[in-house]
Write a structure and sequence with these properties.
214 residues, alpha/beta
Length: 214
């Protein structure tokens, strides 16, 4: 069977004006996972990212600069948009600036979205599931045996939950566990995808200071 390595982007810039920009640690994490991957002898024959800056810059800092396919289906759900829909444009300052409050609110908001709430959001949860599944099918189409994809935590959680036929809320439980630049491995044959590894960070074995979740 063919293999797909799905990498979460490096640490973004929480609290900064441009969250989508990798932090210095995010670049170091990305270099570490790239070096580890090459040390295993695993060479991708297809490179894929979403459209987000933090995803594309992660791939570059990993040291891969060949032709890259870009699919918006691998973009993260727009949490800022979901917050605007939930709070009707009046998002509390603590949600924006306090990590603990931010991630508690993230979980609550996404679960509400999954249940069919937040009608003012620009994307429904069903749309999110369909576009991520379509992106996965495009990345694993005929012609590649080793596919490297850089995406985001919500997308990875969704694709793993889908492959395991888990309840929808499992996407969020997985999302909150995924470490920056963690490796999730799928094997695939045709349109069938199987999870073989989840949220692995062997590239941090000798430098635990690089481990982050956001």
């Amino acid at each position: 069977m063919a293999e797909l390595y799905l990498i979460r982007h490096g640490q973004a810039s929480f609290g900064a004006d441009n969250y989508d920009c990798l932090s210095d640690k995010g670049h170091s994490q990305s270099a570490a996972v790239g070096n580890w991957l090459r040390s295993t002898g695993w060479t991708p024959d297809r490179l894929v990212t979403g459209t987000l800056e933090r995803q594309r810059d992660t791939l570059t800092s990993m040291g891969y600069r060949g032709d890259t396919e870009v699919y918006a289906g691998f973009d993260e759900y727009d949490f800022h948009d979901l917050l605007q829909a939930r709070f009707q444009g009046n998002v509390p300052d603590t949600v924006r600036g306090d990590r603990k409050t931010h991630f508690r609110t993230l979980r609550e908001t996404v679960l509400e979205w999954q249940a069919g709430g937040l009608p003012d959001a620009s994307e429904t949860y069903q749309d999110f599931t369909e576009r991520t599944a379509a992106a996965m099918q495009q990345a694993t189409r005929d012609g590649a045996k080793r596919v490297l994809v850089v995406s985001s935590g919500g997308v990875i959680g969704q694709l793993v939950a889908r492959a395991l036929e888990a309840p929808a809320r499992m996407m969020m439980e997985l999302n909150l566990q995924i470490k920056n630049t963690a490796v999730t491995k799928f094997v695939f044959s045709g349109t069938r995808h199987f999870v073989h590894q989840f949220n692995a960070t062997p590239h941090f074995d000798t430098d635990q200071d690089l481990l982050t979740y956001s």
